[in-house]
Design the sequence.
């Protein structure tokens, strides 16, 4: 998944640590081999290759993954959409917005999770259009952490801290000094300082941003986040962090909320317990944090649900 | 000449032969400047070598002036491949007598290498001989001595010596990037009966002995000489030394069809500085493929897959701070989350590529080097010595598997 992975398990004995680390590494590699579109025979690559022409039978795990994406697309009103890669590729080579560009409009017409047909009985997936492509970049790390969480529980690990590229974090149990893990959100304009702190015990924090960081670079806008509402890259330098019990939910929601309206964020927050959301806007030259408080549910909304 | 080789600072001690690419021989385009090569043996490997030489014909002004094969099919194929322009022979002696040549490329069955090489060297020709050098230790030494006595070039076809991946790996190792080397591991695993020709009437027939010569003790040491010798050369090269001794065991475990050579063996080479190289080979399971791993205290290099892995990549400061907070029992807010970290270069399953040029044709590069050396009239002695030591230790490894003894280099074969 083109990033790094750290796992810290306080107090584990030598031998168990070796075995557990080996098993976790194998599981993460297995997931990468399944979900990476860069690996030619991964489930995703095979789906992208075939699903425009035929309905593709998915194994149970892969079917559930695509289904989960569909559900998240639904509840975020289209903000979480793993089919936007063709637009991302389009914008890589362009900076001017030309609404009349036929190529752009052609791409827009051909993508969208709504064009992914899912048959729950047959467990098949089919695309309605040729230009469609699934990219699980905003899903895979959270999914891997979800699996690792169960592996650690299975191994009776009571306390652990796992970071997948810093943008997906799972914290189980308590810090060895006692209390929840205090997960600071790094300020990229002032590295080494926290803009916000999540208190996590048995949960996760996922961050999505329209920039990446590497060891020799400052934050860089890669134009890799597309706002599906307008079909254009998010130009404003920003990030969203979501804390949730489930790593995969946190991952999907942080991906979605980067392009969601505040209303949609609040609506989703009302549907889940223990969600915390912050947005950080770096555009002014310093990181401005907006905290989204989980509101008391609006009775009308609840009735609608 | 490739980008990978052009931009590299050549390590003159461990790889002096690479300097030929930065300082090639001056080659005119005229007929008198042409390097004339004869190809002896145009079987599967010989055909590859011939095709590679043809690729160099224009850029290096090299001509395949003669071809030779004792078997009619291959004799005819050689004529076809050279479009009748090369003089064709069944007997290499006639070829070197009758055609004016500068060099020969030998790709015959192993047991033919020695007398052909010695005859060619003594006839004033430079020789590129496929690996391994010969079937018996004294033949290997005879070839080496003929090279020294005649002053003509003798190179042995361990083409990894010219592979950009290996070049970059050697640079990395010499720089200390993987720390001190503590062990080498290698293997060559296939799942194949390894039958080159299946219309011979089966094992033991005269025709099978001729065509599938790799199965017969008289002609070959099987996978030891035909496959393992490549990796034994690599181990010597990486460690800058030849082994102190070799131990091993071999068996015919799965393909017990009348063949005389092992389909299953395991070896341990002891090297100076208390380093071991363990190596195994089977033809009944391909799960592991082929590999040579160089294990250092700070990293691992996988030569056959162009990868290197750090043992202890730098942790981000935030992870170090977190661990410190755990050691010091102070639960602090550490700025550890945020945008996704991405590496500066491409990575695959935790490792980095050694060289961007992964699918390099090292056989072509080696032949390019050979033609340049022929034009200059000399080649780095270390290159010949690499071939010699690899071939000697291949045969000593065979002895170890057959006797169950720890085998050392006999004094007669020290050069």
Sequence:
């Amino acid at each position: 998944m083109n990033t790094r992975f750290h796992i810290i398990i306080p107090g584990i004995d030598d031998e168990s640590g070796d075995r557990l680390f080996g098993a976790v590494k194998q599981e993460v590699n297995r997931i990468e081999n399944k979900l990476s579109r860069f690996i030619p025979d991964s489930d995703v690559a095979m789906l992208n290759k075939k699903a425009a022409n035929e309905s593709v039978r998915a194994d149970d795990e892969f079917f559930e993954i695509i289904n989960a994406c569909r559900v998240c697309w639904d509840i975020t009103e289209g903000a979480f959409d793993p089919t936007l890669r063709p637009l991302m590729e389009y914008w890589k080579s362009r900076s001017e917005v030309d609404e009349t560009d036929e190529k752009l409009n052609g791409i827009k017409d051909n993508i969208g999770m709504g064009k992914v047909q899912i048959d729950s009985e047959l467990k098949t997936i089919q695309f309605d259009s040729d230009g469609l492509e699934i990219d699980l970049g905003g899903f895979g790390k959270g999914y891997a952490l979800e699996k690792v969480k169960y592996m650690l529980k299975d191994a009776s690990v009571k306390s652990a801290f796992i970071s997948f590229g810093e943008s997906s974090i799972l914290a189980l149990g308590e810090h060895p000094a006692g209390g929840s893990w205090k997960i600071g959100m790094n300020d990229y304009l002032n590295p080494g300082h926290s803009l916000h702190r999540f208190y996590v015990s048995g949960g996760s924090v996922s961050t999505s941003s329209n920039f990446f960081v590497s060891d020799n670079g400052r934050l860089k806008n890669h134009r890799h986040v597309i706002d599906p509402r307008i079909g254009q890259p998010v130009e404003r330098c920003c990030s969203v962090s979501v804390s949730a019990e489930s790593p995969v939910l946190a991952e999907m929601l942080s991906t979605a909320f980067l392009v969601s309206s505040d209303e949609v964020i609040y609506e989703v927050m009302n549907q889940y317990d223990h969600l915390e959301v912050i947005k950080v806007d770096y555009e002014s030259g310093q990181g401005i944090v907006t905290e989204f408080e989980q509101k008391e549910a609006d009775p009308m909304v609840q009735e609608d649900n | 000449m490739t980008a990978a080789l052009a931009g590299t600072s050549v390590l003159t001690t461990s790889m002096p032969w690479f300097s030929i690419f930065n300082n090639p021989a001056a080659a005119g385009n005229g007929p008198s400047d042409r390097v004339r090569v004869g190809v002896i043996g145009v079987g599967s490997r010989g055909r590859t070598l011939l095709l590679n030489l043809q690729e160099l014909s224009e850029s290096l002004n090299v001509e395949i002036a003669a071809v030779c094969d004792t078997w009619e099919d291959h004799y005819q194929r050689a004529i076809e491949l050279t479009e009748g322009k090369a003089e064709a022979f069944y007997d290499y002696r006639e070829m070197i007598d009758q055609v004016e040549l500068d060099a020969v490329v030998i790709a015959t069955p192993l047991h033919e290498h020695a007398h052909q090489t010695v005859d060619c060297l003594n006839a004033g020709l430079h020789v590129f001989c496929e690996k391994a050098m010969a079937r018996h230790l004294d033949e290997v030494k005879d070839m080496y001595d003929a090279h020294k006595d005649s002053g003509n070039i003798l190179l042995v076809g361990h083409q990894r010596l010219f592979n950009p991946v290996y070049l970059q790996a050697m640079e990395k190792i010499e720089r200390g990037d993987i720390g001190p080397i503590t062990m080498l591991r290698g293997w060559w695993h296939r799942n194949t009966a390894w039958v080159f020709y299946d219309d011979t009437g089966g094992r033991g027939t005269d025709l099978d002995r001729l065509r599938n010569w790799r199965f017969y003790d008289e002609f070959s040491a099987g996978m030891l000489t035909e496959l393992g010798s490549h990796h034994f050369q690599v181990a010597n090269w990486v460690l800058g030394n030849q082994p102190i001794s070799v131990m091993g065991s071999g068996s015919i475990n799965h393909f017990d069809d009348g063949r005389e050579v092992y389909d299953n063996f395991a070896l341990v080479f002891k090297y100076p500085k208390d380093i071991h190289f363990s190596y195994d080979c089977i033809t009944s399971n391909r799960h592991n493929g082929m590999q040579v791993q160089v294990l250092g205290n700070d990293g691992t290099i996988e030569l056959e897959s162009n990868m290197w892995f750090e043992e202890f990549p730098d942790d981000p400061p935030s992870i170090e701070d977190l661990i410190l907070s755990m050691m010091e029992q102070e639960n602090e807010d550490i700025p550890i989350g945020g945008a996704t970290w991405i590496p500066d270069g491409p990575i695959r399953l935790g490792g980095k590529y050694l060289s961007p040029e992964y699918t390099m044709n090292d056989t072509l590069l080696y032949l390019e080097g050979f033609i340049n050396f022929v034009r200059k009239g000399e080649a780095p002695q270390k290159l010949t010595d690499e071939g010699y030591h690899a071939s000697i230790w291949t045969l000593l490894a065979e002895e170890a598997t057959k006797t169950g003894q720890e085998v050392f280099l006999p004094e007669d074969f020290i050069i």
Summary: Chain B is about 35% helix and 20% strand. Residues 278 and 355 of chain B are 25 Å apart (CA to CA). The mean pLDDT of chain B is 92. Chain B touches chain A at residues 313-319, 322-323, 325-326, 328-344, 346-347, 349-350 (CB under 8 Å).
